[in-house]
Amino acid sequence: TGQFTDKLRVPEALTFDDVLLRPKESRVEPDEADVSTRVSRNVEVNVPILSAAMDTVTESQMAIAMARQGGLGVLHRNLDVEEAVAEVERVKRADELVIRDVVTADPDQTVREVDAMMDREGVSGAPVTDDEGEVLGIISGTDIRPYLEVGDRDEVREAMTDEVVTASEEVTAREALELMYEHKIERVPIVDENDRLTGLVTMQGILQRREYGNAARDEGGHLRVGVAVGPFETDRAVAVDEAGADVLFIDCAHAHNLNVIDGAREIRESVEADVVVGNVGTREAAEDVVDFADGIKVGIGPGSICTTRVVSGAGMPQITAVAEVADVAAEQDVPVIADGGIRYSGDAIKAIAAGADAVMLGSYFAGTDEAPGRVITVDGKKYKQYRGMGSVGAMQSGDGDRYLKDEPEEDEEYVPEGVEAAEPYKGSLESELHQLVGGMQSGMGYVGAATIPEFKERSEFVRVSSAGQTEGHPHDVMITDEAPNYSPSE
Ligand code: XMP
Description:
By secondary structure, the protein is of the alpha/beta class. It has helices at residues 60-68, 81-93, 111-121, 141-150, 156-159, 173-183, 203-211, 234-242, 258-270, 283-289, 308-312, 318-331, 345-353, 363-366, 392-397, 429-447, 452-458, 466-472; strands at residues 19-21, 37-40, 43-45, 49-51, 72-75, 125-129, 135-140, 187-191, 197-202, 226-229, 247-250, 274-280, 295-298, 336-339, 358-361, 375-378, 381-387, 420-424, 461-463. It contains 18 helices and 19 strands. α13 crosses α16 (429-447). The site of xanthosine-5'-monophosphate has 26 residues, from β15 and α14. InterPro entries: Aldolase_TIM, CBS_dom, CBS_dom_sf, IMP_DH, IMP_DH/GMP_Rdtase_CS, IMP_DH_GMPRt. It is an enzyme of class 1 (oxidoreductase).
């Protein structure tokens, strides 16, 4: 023995393919397994899945779709602060019960003008207000149509319905709907105590909200959204917090850097939103952040586009990393998110068995319609771009401080920790999520756990040899039809 040979007595660290869930006695039907969870101390979601804060994965369109399906999108930070704020607002305004930027008509406008305006704005009706904002009436396609044939220069005040049913700010979706049924109308202006317009509730809006009954919403009924911020970006953190972000994610490849922890602490003290700190991958790192973090995100190099482990020689296989962090976090009741390396639904549920409360995926979603970027065709096959946030391309359009590097003068001076790639085009997010959640529920069924907390308690692992791993994939056959949740090339 000696200083260095001792170092070779290394502990083992495992990842997804090294383990399987031990099947157990069960009365749980997979469809009934409840997958709701927490992503941070105060933020609950109905589906334990987050989309990665990457510029080829999550902008507002993805975040809206994720929240509507019950999960959480985390907006990337390769945007300037104003644009990040606008993105948060876009998510918060989607599916809003009360529409705020209401298209209004003026009583002196002509019917023809209002018709053109409604066309332009894509609305089918508009409250008519005076200069003070007081609601005088409401005009819709039905009011206008008879005039368009004969008197399209008539004034709106002639054509409008002047008996308007309004409601106050306190109105609930159910009350608004009752008003609409009772009066056979499709929109109810919201007014203050002086009858001034403050918003609008529409039938279409209410029905749309109903369609997403499983959506992840805040107390006010708005879709939830996460936002990535750099560890030293207190300004960005405060701005997106004020815009209504539910959870901020300290976005760093090595959050056990003590300067990063200082920065994260400062951000934690400056905002109302929950702050998830990451990424970490060891027990010691978890111990250093657990006292102030509202959630801890785990993943040092497991990602599909990551080269951190080969470039730096550092990393932690993901199952062991999650388990080490979860041991510490569970003591303080802090949620853990497993970030990166998930290729199949089975990997996602294994991460939860290892102690995570939710999982974050990048490549799995990068090929969907809702991810930024366009579909490209190579040799007749469709793809979408997917790149690491530590790739040269992503660092050029943002900055490299996720990897704690200063911006170099020349492009060739970048030391990237990620690659630029393409993902097969996959269609809508909804069907991808359906497969992912359905597979995770199957895992819960095999273990006999009806909820995520119960699954974390009850699940056990067995170790898989490489022969066992081969046995687990389709083998000795030629696959003739592609399954929606299995691709042999992955
Ligand atoms: P998956 O496997 O789901 O991983 O595609 C997504 C996660 O990978 C991390 N990430 C990176 N890691 N270099 C890295 O080492 C990179 O360039 C990079 N970009 C993203 C990130 O945690 C993401 O959620």
